[in-house]
Please model this.
Amino acid sequence: MICSIEKEMIEKTIEFHRHNCPGLTIGIRAAELAMEKLNIHNAKSPVCVAETDMCGVDAIQFLTGCSFGKGNLIHKDYGKSAFTFYDRDAQKGFRAVFKDNFARDEEDRDMRIKRLLQADLKDLFVTEDVDEPPVRPARILKSIQCDGCSEMTMESRIRLFDGKKLCLPCFQNVEQKI
Model:
């Protein structure tokens, strides 16, 4: 099945990312899968956990509305082309893993993008249902002034060391075990 996302939206996604590449296209198709399975672009409480920092995460952010700033786009640095999408209101979700065997390194970039856009989603991703939210909802926490650099820091990121409240960079400067 050819990508169902309108060409204009794909072009806007490319513009948002600043270039077109196979990684972005994988993200476009992953977002399409989330729209198809969860109607995620219309969900009130969507979540995406990206297990990669590849270009495709920009497509997911742009097309689904999940973002780091809202706390509903989470990065777990596992180095996998895998994405878990979840709708908290509907209490359902799924994890999608890009099939590496779909990749053809000998193809040029434009041909690979074209193949990715024309492929059936079931040929691109292995999916499994998720019964529970992949992460807790974001919370607003108090800010505390770091005794080292004086910068305000989210309280959950403050570390106590020798009686001082330190942000992570200041803590790493004094703690030798890190």
